[in-house]
Write a structure and sequence with these properties.
Blueprint: H1 4-9, E1 19-22, H2 30-36, E2 38-41, H3 48-52, H4 56-67, H5 74-91, E3 98-102, E4 108-114, E5 120-121, E6 133-144, H6 151-155, E7 162-164, H7 169-176, E8 179-182, E9 185-192, H8 200-220, E10 231-235, E11 240-247, H9 250-262, H10 277-285, H11 287-299
Parallel strand pairs: 1-3
Antiparallel strand pairs: 1-7, 2-6, 3-4, 4-6, 5-6, 8-9, 9-11, 10-11
Helix pairs in contact: 4-5, 8-9, 8-11
Length: about 300
């Protein structure tokens, strides 16, 4: 199959990965974290040796001493436990876990993944960060919050130093990936950049033409997929996103590739130059539908970008 190499190269997002929102001391550490590829957490007096010990009682007592809290007072006991939980969460981040950090006033978010296997310490203050306990991060995107789905405003409302944001995983995946596999489905995300009111005719034409082309791909290349099971999620603000989701997903991957190549943005720009009769025949027959897709994408100012996060 001519698309086999491409299909095998699409990144699969692990189902078990964690998604975490890590605060940056009111944005003070945002640029330092992003520019130097790490995140950090406070309570420097609590060492790695402390965290690696199995004696939780002693660790709680040390936190109480450092924070000047009364371990027998109900409110202080809660604060001690909360601090301990944050330190353990930070220590136990897994390689591949997703991290979001906010800038000052949460006007920007940086999106990245943990790339080390365990916590490390660094007392180098040249980074203008006084957090010694750190994790290495690969940053993928820095986005203005007002360019994101409104759901991200909910994320920033949490006041905890570290928050579990896995319930928002689909929205997060769609920021850093435009074509990916997850839980047996392929996801294809198109970003609408127009700041004008969305033209309904252009939107409907785009959706209908994408659906028609997907059906023809499935038939022409004998993929035997349940294209009728394709679902669409729309974020209809402008700018906004269209997400197509299909079980198995070979059809959707091929659709994304054809659309990407025709717009000059795909991982394999030689795809259409391959002398493959079956592909050439398909493109010739489907020219009217493809042109409708191109025109609608142009009208809606759909972002033209290469497929991200290939293996």
């Amino acid at each position: 199959m001519i698309f086999e190499q491409l299909i095998n190269s699409i990144e699969e997002v692990e189902e078990e990965k964690g998604y975490w929102f890590v605060r940056t001391d009111s944005g003070e550490n945002f640029n330092t974290f992003v520019e130097n590829d790490f995140i950090g957490i406070g309570w420097n007096e609590i060492t790695l040796n402390d965290l690696n010990k199995s004696d939780v009682g002693s660790l709680k007592n040390k936190i109480a001493k450092v924070e000047k809290l009364d371990p027998f007072a109900t409110r202080d006991k809660s604060r001690i436990t909360s601090t301990l939980n944050k330190l353990f969460i930070f220590k136990n981040f897994k390689k591949g876990d997703f991290i979001i950090i906010p800038s000052e006033n949460s006007t920007q978010y940086a999106f990245g993944t943990i790339v080390d296997d365990e916590i490390f310490t660094d007392s180098n203050l040249s980074f203008k960060c006084n957090y010694y306990k750190r994790r290495k991060v690969k940053w993928m995107e820095v986005k203005n919050v007002d360019s994101l789905d409104p759901i991200f405003y909910k994320i920033k409302n949490t006041r905890h130093a570290i928050s579990d944001i896995k319930p928002y995983q689909n929205y997060i995946d769609n920021v850093t990936n435009n074509l990916y596999l997850k839980q047996g489905y392929a996801h294809y995300v198109l970003e609408i950049l127009t700041t004008d009111d969305i033209n309904v005719d252009s939107l409907l034409t785009l959706i209908q033409s994408l659906k028609k082309l997907a059906n023809e791909i499935n038939k022409h290349f004998d993929l035997n997929e349940d294209v009728a099971g394709t679902s669409i999620r729309l974020n209809l603000q402008s700018p906004g996103k269209i997400e197509l989701k299909l079980p198995s997903g070979k059809t959707l991957i091929i659709l994304a590739t054809i659309v990407g190549v025709l717009s000059g943005c795909a991982p394999d720009n030689t795809l259409l130059s391959q002398n493959n009769p079956k592909l050439k025949e398909f493109l010739e027959v489907q020219t009217p539908t493809i042109k409708k897709i191109e025109k609608s994408m142009e009208d809606l100012h759909v972002k033209k970008e290469e497929i991200k996060n290939l293996k």
